Amino acid sequence: MDLGIKGKTALVCGASKGLGRGCAEALAKEGVHVTMVARTASVLEVTAAEIRQLAGEDVIITTLACDITSAEGRALALAACPQPDIVVTNAGGPPPGDFRDWQREHWIAALDANMLTPIELIKATVDGMMARGFGRIINITSSSVKAPIDILGLSNGARSGLTGFVAGVARKTVASNVTINNLLPGAFETDRLKTTLSAMAKARGDEPEALIAQQRAANPSKRFGSPAEFGAFCAFLCSAHAGYMTGQNILLDGGAYPGTY
Hints:
Layout: E1 9-13, H1 18-29, E2 33-38, H2 41-55, E3 61-65, H3 71-80, E4 86-89, H4 104-132, E5 135-140, H5 153-173, E6 178-185, H6 191-204, H7 208-218, H8 227-237, E7 249-252
Parallel strand pairs: 1-2, 1-4, 2-3, 4-5, 5-6, 6-7
Helix pairs in contact: 1-2, 1-8, 4-5, 6-7
């Protein structure tokens, strides 16, 4: 299927590895010119070189090492990609832990990274998208929005706030062919997953590798997801064919969530 986005421009955050990389790679393969943002320049450049090789010389891959959760980082990203047709927001989740140990500064950091940064990026780009008659904004959130995870309270709270915001604004933009949706990843083969499961294992007094194997086997699919398949789904949501879907929270978890709704 031709997704109809060849030649479009995309700003992809957290793009050096994991799910962000999966999205950047999938979009580039569809002929989208991608500005990749991540904190660590060395990792980012290696990833960008690999994606350039996959996408071909007609696709422009730009890199920017910055902290997208800061005002300065967002300004640099928007200067590098001033009129994106596609924005994929993504920032590392806050650390796991016990809510009794978190102070105000921990909550503010979580809100800045996982709620306010996506809102600021939407605010900065959505009017231009509406004026041009095309836009796709994808927020990578978490399955914890649907089924909260006890040790991820900071993430549960901040990402749920973003979800509520998107539910309202997405209905105001779709008439201009600008959609805003949230992708809720479950267990994917990423560094974040290893960190979370290691913290869970430590709290239980278990071995991390044993818990990882247990969690993998417990998923109905008997595996964890791959960043590549996550990216492919993201690319479809960014496509010309997805203009009738907006304000949705789409769970990709191998069937782990047991509910009907």
